[in-house]
Every structure is written in structure tokens, then in C-alpha cells.
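JOB MANIFEST
job_type = single_chain_structure
chain_count = 1
residues = 174
[input]
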Amino acid sequence: MHNKEQEFEAFLNITENRSRILAVIIAMVQDFSVAEDLFQETVLQILKSSHLYDKDRAFLPWACGIARNVVKRHWRKLKKQPVSMAQEILINLAELAVEDDPDLWREERVALHHCLKKMPDRFQRLFILRYAHNYKGKELSERADIRAGSIRTTLARLRGKLRQCISMQIEVSQ
């Protein structure tokens, strides 16, 4: 397969497994902000290594292995290793969770996509700016064209509406 095709295939796999890979990283570093940065680094490593991926094997364990290596490099840079047995248990639980259920959160992702499409354009834009592009505070307020003082309230309302819609979607599909 051509290198660009391999990268595109890897990108699709990453998109499908984002929450599971991120869960492993969060379990290891226990800091969402750091985990997001390390996830981005993991994505780059997966794309760079896409030519090494064996399509006959499951993508998720391979990607989680890369994520673990990225976190370990991060710890070496900081000269920090996990300190507790509890942290090691969390890492193992996260890995078991993603290995045991290949469709973990799939239903929720489909429902989120459906519900987001039903939201007004303004809310869709806010959601994408906040959660896809990770804008915060004043920059989010400016890009979304929402007063800085009401951005938190608007996000809370948006999350509430999405949560309610997702619950109803899942209930209907069962």
C-alpha cells in the first residue's frame, strides 16, 4: 500500500479509537491537559510509523503500545516514573477496557454525532472550537463570538443538551 494511503488508513483508525487511546494515556499520566498533549504526540508517532503497522493484527493494541512509549519518553524527560501501585493498576485497567470491548463508546459517539447535527450552527461551532480545536477562555469567546462572561454558562447548557439528547438516542436505539 502507498505511504499516503497507509497514513490515511492510520488517521481513520486513530479517529475511530481516539477515546480509547486517550484513556490509556490519561490513566498513565493522570492529568488531562498533559494527556491531550501526549495524545497529539502519539498521533504523530502513529502516522510516522504507519508503514510498520501489520493490517492482520488489531490496530488498538499497536496504537496503545505507541502511546505507552510516548508517555515513557515523557517521563524520562521529566525524570519521573509512576510512583504508586495504584497508578500501575489504573494503566492495566485502561488497557483491559480498550482491549475487551472494541466498540466501547461507539454507540455514544454515533449518538453525539447525530445530536450535534441537530444543534443550531452557533452551538456546533462552539463545540468544535472548544473540543476539537481546544480553544479556551478569551480566545474561545472571540472565535465563537460569545461574550466572555457567558462562555462557561453556554458551554454548560450545550453539554447538558447534548447529554440529554445522547441519552434519548441511546434509549431509542436499544
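[summary]
DSSP finds eight helices and no strands in the chain.
The first helix runs from residue 3 to 29.
exit_status = 0
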